[in-house]
Amino acid sequence: GKRPMNTDFSVQRANMVEGQLRTTDVTNTPLLQAMGEIPREAFVPSRKKALAYIDEDLEISSATGDAPARYLMEPSPFGKLIQLAEVQPSDVVLDIGTGSGYSAAVLSRLASFVVALECDENLAQSATETLSTLGAVNVAVVGGKLAEGYKDDAPYDVIFIGGAVDEVPAVLFDQLREGGRLVAVIGEGNAARAHVFVKDEGIVSGRPVFNVAVKPLPGFRREAEFVF
């Protein structure tokens, strides 16, 4: 007979942890636990739920005007990036470009509070509803331009940028607490690299850690310079 859908997802979730995360050096126990329990399928449009655990980025919102399509980040790069932030249980986290809210759900298990910033109203509403359904009470979904951060609740211990950017705007470093970490993927396609930035005595220094290809977020493209 047909197995009920939920066991399928729990099997897929376990396979994701073993086959996609552990095999790519995601070793942080609370993170593996969170990703092993949070239903990714709840953050995916209904017609794509069966694909929630594939090892590629999954479109959750199509491109409009000059804004790129939006994606649920592939599990392995996502896990590696979150691990890089070294989130502590007392941390307040700014999750930039939360999309449908999956990153916020994972971060909510690791941190004390998550401010999840989203520029797309439909995604923000969907994130709010899903997170509420899952009982993630320590997350606030807020609207606004991603590249501006969210200064109302600053400073943050961790700022996570959930997609590729050309550069990190200075305003985001301003919203980082002393000792805080900002994780971002800088560059395009396969040439992009995960960076971690740390604020120490008011000075921010960053270093590239590994190559990773993730989809871009809206609002972070460097304007093309005109050449005459």
Tally the helices. Answer: 6
Beta-strand fraction estimate: 25-35%
Rg of Cα set: 17 Å
| Spatial strand sequence of the major β-sheet | 5-4-3-6-7-8-9
Distance between the terminal alpha carbons, to the nearest Å?
A: 69 Å
- Note the overall shape: globular
Averaged pLDDT: 93
* Strands, count: 9
Q: The biggest beta sheet, please?
A: 7 strands, mixed
Q: Report the helical percentage.
A: 25-40%
Order of helices and strands: HHEEHEHEHEEHEEE
Unreliable stretches, pLDDT < 50, 5 or more residues? none
Please give a structural write-up.
With 228 residues, this protein is of the alpha/beta class. Helix content is 28%, strand content 27%. A seven-stranded mixed β-sheet has the order 5-4-3-6-7-8-9. Strands 1-2 form a two-stranded antiparallel sheet. Helix 4 links the parallel strand 3 (92-96) and strand 4. Helix 1 (5-21) runs antiparallel to helix 2 and helix 2 (29-37) crosses helix 4 (102-110). The protein is globular and about 50 Å long.
Concise synopsis of the structure shown:
The chain is α/β, with parallel strands linked by helices and 228 residues long. The protein is built from 6 helices and 9 strands, in the order ααββαβαβαββαβββ. The strands form 2 sheets. It has a 7-stranded mixed β-sheet. The protein has a two-stranded antiparallel sheet with strand order 1-2.
